[in-house]
Design brief:
Number of helices: 1
Oligomer: single chain
Largest sheet: 2 strands, antiparallel
Number of strands: 4
Strand content: 35-45%
Structural class: mainly beta
Shape: elongated
Length: 79
């Protein structure tokens, strides 16, 4: 799958691009989880703070965005 991946923090300006379009392994849903095929994704202000380094992300690399619209692509056990 393609994803915008944060590999390092940096100020978002025209000349700076801390996000990189990368091929990423497609995740498998675990027990009680669903896998969504994302059609659109928003990034909130907290994630912009992570991208620019004002808040440290938990781990890098990171795929930001949790406000998604999509369709269920797979179900994990018990979902």
């Amino acid at each position: 799958m393609k994803a915008m991946v944060l590999t390092q923090t940096g100020v978002l300006k025209a000349a700076s691009n801390p996000l990189r379009l990368m091929e990423w392994p497609e995740p498998l849903p675990g027990r009680g989880e669903v896998l969504l095929k994302v059609a659109a994704c928003g990034v909130c202000h907290t994630e912009l703070d992570e991208i620019e380094g004002r808040i440290s992300p938990l781990t890098l690399p990171l795929i930001p965005g949790h406000q998604v619209v999509g369709r269920v692509a797979a179900l994990g056990e018990g979902a």
